[in-house]
Structures are given as C-alpha cells and as structure tokens.
Amino acid sequence: MSLTLYYHPLASFCHKVLIALYENNTAFERRIINLAEPADRAELEAIWPLCRFPVVRDHARAVDVPETSIIIEYLDRHYPGAQPLLPTDPDVALDVRLWDRFFDHYVQEPMQSIVLARLNDIQCDQTSERTKLKTAYKMIEKRMEAREWMCGASFSLADCAAAPALFYAATVLPFPEEYDALTTYFDRLMARPSVRRVLEEAKPYFQMYPFYDDIPERFL
C-alpha cells in the first residue's frame, strides 16, 4: 500500500486528516502511535523530528508529509478523489485556506490549552483561551447564517478542520444556546459519513480524554 498514516485515533488533528482520507476513499495503512511508548516515539521522531502526528509516508514517491493542511493538499494533488477538498478556483481556495487556519489557530489551539491544563492538573487562568473560543463561535455563527458548508456548497479542507475542532471545543465550552447557525452547522458536520466514521473509531479511546464526561451521550 502506498500510504501509511502515523496517528492516534483520539487526536483531533489526526481526525482532520482521517476525514479527508475517508471523504475520498483513499486507501492507506494505519500506524497508531502511542507517544508514551519509547519505541513508538522513536519511530515517529525518525520520520518527523518534531515528533508530532499525523504524518503520512508515501512509499511510492518516497516522501514523508507532516502537518495536517499540507497532508490534505498533498492528497488532493497526488491521490485525488471525486471531489477536491481544495477548490481549483484560486480565490475560493484562498478562502478555504483562511478558514482552515482559523479552526486550527483559533479553535483547536485554545481548546488544546484548556485540555492540557486539565490533563496535567494545572491550575491556571484560562480566560484568554475561553475568550478566543467565544470570539470564534461568534464569527462562525455569523458566517454560517446562510451557508451549508464553511466555504460554499461543497465540503472542503475547511470543514475537515472544523469538525474535530468544534467537536472537542464544545466539550470545554458549550456553544451558546442562541447560536442556531453554529449548532446547525455542527450537527451537519457530525452527520457527515466521514466524520461519523472517525468518531466511531475514536470511541474506544474517549475515556482517555480529560473532558470525557462532557462528551454528549449521542457520541458514546
């Protein structure tokens, strides 16, 4: 098999790449990495010295590809499916990249800071992180008032980023009840077959998540 994905089924950034792979029915081999295991850590570090997953190894082209957005663009270019996740129109593609970065930096990052503090039992002021999430929710609510997907009528890289970011963010800071557009978009994402598959595969690992008790029953 040409592609090997180095990942963990619980990790939100790994979910982003898995969604892209499932969207286009891309064949790949799985290599689950447990960073607590020295051998696994050493294996990942040999591929990507920063020791962060996911990473895709393309055996056919002798290339290792790190970083979620780069991986998905690489797959779109070299292993395309029926529907490109990065549009061919350059202006639309720029918008997709913007909202992909938005979810990684302004939803994933503050969410992960809150999760890591809980995981490591660190007592700290999280006002800044929660304020960023509140601002992000407000921006998404406004944008999704008349949209099906984040950047138009087609599911894209931006939606691959949105699904795991919002899934985990909602466990640390629930969406405001009055944000109907955000909630509707979230439900649409969660109903997507590729996203459902990723969450189903993550189920056995959910109890490792420090906000496990805040995951809605429908996902357990």
UniProtKB/TrEMBL annotation:
InterPro entries on file: Glutathione-S-Trfase_C-like (IPR010987), Glutathione-S-Trfase_C_sf (IPR036282), Glutathione_S-Trfase (IPR040079), Glutathione_S-Trfase_N (IPR004045), GST_C (IPR004046), Thioredoxin-like_sf (IPR036249)
GST C-terminal domain: residues covered: 89-211
Superkingdom, natural source: Bacteria
Domain GST N-terminal: 1-83
Pfam families attached to this UniProt entry: GST_C, GST_N_3
Gene3D superfamilies in UniProt: 1.20.1050.10, Glutaredoxin
Protein name listed in UniProt: Glutathione S-transferase family protein
